[in-house]
Design goal:
This is Transposase. InterPro entries: Homeodomain-like_sf (IPR009057), Transposase_8 (IPR002514). The chain is mainly alpha-helical and about 100 residues long. It is about 70% helix and about 0% strand. It is built from five helices and no strands. α1 crosses α2. The longest helix has about 30 residues. The model has no long low-confidence stretch (mean pLDDT about 80).
């Protein structure tokens, strides 16, 4: 018996290629020019741009390159620390702004 299943002819693109394509599309005069330069369908770049703008893409740290992921972790830690400091300052203001009762 012959295997009747068709081979998968879809071309797979890794995260590095997608990131480079998106960077090229940003720097290029148009997304279509970038797609022609990379010899891919412009619709694919438009899909990648749309996916990159969704909050889900930001939550997926695995798709980011290691430098960007490290910077993101540092910025999130800094934001948490600053939020804690702000809460402490708010509590201190509340304590010191109370009028003493004689």
């Amino acid at each position: 018996m012959k295997d009747l299943s068709k081979p998968d002819k879809r071309r797979k693109y890794d995260a590095a290629f997608r990131a480079e394509a998106l960077r090229l599309a940003e720097q290029s005069r148009s997304t279509q020019a970038a797609a022609r330069a990379l010899n891919i369908d412009p619709k694919r770049i438009y899909q990648w741009q749309k996916a990159a703008q969704t909050p889900v893409a930001a939550a997926l740290g695995a798709a980011l390159d290691p430098d960007t992921a490290a910077e993101l972790r540092q910025l999130r830690a800094l934001a948490r620390r600053q939020a804690q400091e702000l809460d402490i300052l708010k509590k201190a203001i509340a304590i010191f702004s109370q009028t003493p009762t004689p």
